[in-house]
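Hallway conversation turned thread

IA: we were arguing at lunch whether anyone had actually written out AB hydrolase-1 domain-containing protein end to end. Turns out nobody had. So, for the record, here is the sequence (325 residues) and right after it the structure tokens. Reply here if something looks off.
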Amino acid sequence: MPLLKSQLTTKFPFRNPHVNTLYKFFANKEKPNYERRRITTWDNDFIDLDFLTSNSFSAVLLIHGLEGSSESSYMASTANFLKDHGYDVISMNLRSCSGEDNNILKTYHAGKTDDVEFVINYLIENYNYRDIILCGFSLGGNLILKYLGEFNVGVPETVKGGIAVSVPIDLASAQVELSKLKNKIYMKEFLRTLKSKVILKASKFPEFNPDKKRIAKASTFRDFEEIYTAPVFGFDGPEDYWAKASSKPYLPNIDRKTLLINAKDDSFLSLDCFPYEIAENSDNFYLMTPKYGGHVGFVTTFNDEAFWIENQIVNFIQDKLNIYS
């Protein structure tokens, strides 16, 4: 129990995971009419939140994936879909991802749940939301799953549950998968923006003095974690970071209804990212593994208007969490 069956049906060429992933990534979705609010953090930094409101007492906090933002196509389509169904939406831009570099050397990583906690507490203290639902994509999904399991009974009652999509819940094995030839185009793009951020940080913070030749040669996430994530955030190395930031060990601790949707053909994910046994032994953690979908894709046809993943999100909120706008 709770394994949920998928009703996703798709047609050629969207049974190819790369077509599905890239089509959704480049989809020309209508940009949400966000209202940006900048909040100051405890460490003299800022986080930009983009609000799309329907004057609802129920809000969905969306968190994007690696090097994404509130304007990523999957974030935009989900935000608009949720608003059309009457929910307030808050799209959280992780540090350095809102179009402006953040103030301090530290940006974000896959396990940095203190920022998630901070944003949730801000929403509870400043808005009259009766319900808050968490929804994250890829790295953002890892953040919400880890937050729900790590904080467990300490999660505010206002937070009713979560939905996570295309999540590398086991970072160590997922990075091996991403380093394979089949994912070369994605790895190159991720590292292009990550490298530019590291170079910018090095120019702003002289005490951070990475080897620029090493930055230029970096071709895997291991390289990046060794250059930036591990030393800046105080991990002992890439393996230590992957072990401590992965959400998988925290899944059995989740005490409110939460759904993970990982496509079986997602080229980013290893077999360890499909936690069937954990779901079968949980009363709260649900798992859905459609045969097709790619990575944060789930497109069914050209000019897709089925909004399959968006419908799954709303259906879970309404059918399992019993929250209607």
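OS: looked through it. The chain has two domains: 3-169+246-319, 171-245.
IA: good, adding that to the notes. Residues 171-245 form one domain.
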